[in-house]
Amino acid sequence: MANPILRMDKPPYLLTLLISLIGFQINYITKSLTETPLVEYKFDRSEQSMTDTSFTYLMKCNIANLSSDKLFKKVKISVAYPSSQSQSYYFTSPDITIIHPSSLTGPKYVLSDNIVSFFLENVQPQFKYILTAKIVSKKRIETNPFLYVDCEEPMIVKEGGIETFLVENKLAINIALTICLLCLGAAYLRKV
Prior knowledge:
- The chain is an alpha+beta fold.
- 28% of the residues lie in helices and 39% in strands.
């Protein structure tokens, strides 16, 4: 009689094997993404005031260097709307908030009517910044502005999504998968 633990026709065994393979894939993808020079951005825009002739919005752009060992020097991040909308809005009150300790030297930003450029001297690994500016517009704005990045080193700039989620939450995902595997293993051994 064969050992019941080694039988592959039991669903908990196959489920445990499937979760193990999913965990391996997630770890592999996450490792390759953390070794990539990856910078994430997310826009958040909220309406602050409205008059008969204008709308005022507070635009926040969260910037995070998700790479584990890549320092970016002399990063210029510009925010603007397409040129077709450039006559109907302008930026005011730009600012940079540092989430992790970092250095800001020289001018922090340059402001023209329809574009704002932020300057970050050194973007350390795992550091986060919040770029803010007010947008005053003649009409309601339904879309986020475009982001333009200029840097001495090559980098991949991605809007927040599944890839950046995996990198940011790799530890929590691994803990959850480990707990699932332990629970499935315990449930399977209880049945045997």
